[in-house]
Structure formats: C-alpha cells, structure tokens
Amino acid sequence: MQSAGKVPRTAKPPLVRVRREDRPKRTCTPGRILILTALSVATAMLFATGAAASPPGPQSNRATTSKPSPIELSVFSPGTNDVAGKDGSGFVIDLALTAHNRATNGFLSPAAGYKPLFNNPTSPTFQPGANGGAPGLVVLLSTTPDMPGTPFHGPNTNLAGLFQINGVGSVRGGLTQTWNTWQVGKAGFGSGPSVLTAYVVRGTAPTVVPTSGLDVISNTVKVPFTITAPAPVPTP
Fold it and tell me: Residue 125, Cβ neighbours under 10 Å: how many?
C-alpha cells in the first residue's frame, strides 16, 4: 500500500529513435533548381569578368597610357542631350581644369600661361584660337560653320579664345584649378544636334586643330547636345 501524500511515479515513455531512412528528405523542386543554377552562373560570371564588368568612364587619353593624365577636364554645361540657348545663342559652355596631383600643378601655372583673365568681347583677343588665360585649352563644336575670309574654319576651329571668364584657384589640398566660361552671345555656331569636344594640350593650342600631332595632357570630354535654331530673318 502506498503511503498517504506521495504521488505515484509514472513510467517514462520509451525513447523512439528515428532511423535515417525514415527522416523527412529535403526535395528540390524544378523551380528551386532553376534559381540555384542561375545564381551559380551569375556568380561565376562576376568572378570571371572582374574589373571588365565596370562601366567605361569618360572618353580619355588614358586608354592609350598606363599613367593618369596630368590634367582632369570637367564640363558642367551643357549637359548631355541638353537643348541649349534660344534662337541659336544665349547658352553657356562652362568647364574646369584640375591638376591630377601637386606634382602636375605646373601644367596650370602662371609660367605655363594660366592666369585670371576677362576676355572682353570688344578686345582683339576675343576670337577663335588659343585662350589668353588658358593657352592649352581646345574647345570644338561639330556644328561650327566654315566661313571663308573669317577665323571660322568648320568643326576643327578652336573656340577657346571666345571664353570670356577665366579664373584660377587652389582646391582639394593644394591642387591648381581653373574655371573657364563662354557665354555664347550671338548665333552663328550652327543649330540642331551638336557635339562639344574639349581637352588640353601642352603649350599653346592652335586655331585650327589638326587630327594628330598634338601633345594632349588631359582627358577628352565629348558632350552631345542640341543648339536651338536661329530666329527667322524677317522678310522686307
């Protein structure tokens, strides 16, 4: 007989071991197999392509040399695919030149001819060719007309000499930088789809730019945009 106050001890259920062959198996559906296969292929392609998968940067003479260019050229206006101006004028071409490092500051130094300059449109210096404040700058428009008897000789005409505002400063830890701006005050540089091309050469840039033979010391920037059509000339 059990004593009062004690709870009878119940027997534990026997331990049932699940055999390996009885355990539920993880199955791969056709959809899961397809996803895993796609991920494996994508991973393999990522490691196989490496740096080649990176998008190309702006057009630059770095493609032909292992060293970076001494000068970095940046165009702020016009932007890609912009519609610029009104009646063929009134738009701005704005760019900057920045030394790659302190060792290349000399390319933009006063000794190299780079200096603050207001190029007055009434001055004899205001004409196609080299810019008095940035002598190595080359700026081309694909729509520039060929006008015999004038300094305009088609798309290879260097328009840097028409930039009115040219400033010099020091940025980013002592790097020399210039700002160069042209406010196009008159129509006459074509209309419709155009391409701006800009780069810097060593020394003084020519008025008519040849297709080869220049010592380019910067990246080359090309900007496609549209110049508005000139206003129609009223008939008498």
Answer: 15
Please answer whether residues 227 and 85 qualify as being in contact, where contact means their C-beta atoms are separated by less than 8 angstroms. Answer: yes
**CB count, 10 Å around CB of 139?**
25
Does this model's pTM top 0.90? My answer is no
- C-alpha 114 chain-centroid distance: 23
Q: What are phi and psi of 18, to 5 degrees?
A: -90, 120
**50: alpha, beta or left? (left if phi > 0; alpha if psi -120 to 50):** left
106 neighbors 112 (Cβ within 8 angstroms)? yes
Q: Are the C-beta atoms of residues 100 and 67 closer than 8 Å to each other? A: no
227 — pLDDT class (breaks 50, 70, 90): very high
In 3D space, the residue among 118, 152, 139, 150 whose CA is nearest the CA of residue 198 turns out to be 139
User: CA distances (Å), 233 to each of 87, 139, 229, 230, 236, in order?
Assistant: 11, 29, 12, 9, 9
Cβ atoms < 10 Å from Cβ of 60 = 19
Span 23-77, pLDDT tens digits: 444 444 444 444 334 434 333 333 333 333 333 333 333 333 457 899 999 999 9
> How far is residue 209's CA from residue 203's CA, in Å, rounded to a whole number?
13
Our CA dihedral for 130, 141, 229, 93, rounded to 10 degrees, sits at -60
**Cα 161-165-171 angle, rounded to 5 deg:** 115
Write the pLDDT tens digit of every residue in 211-224.
999 999 999 999 99
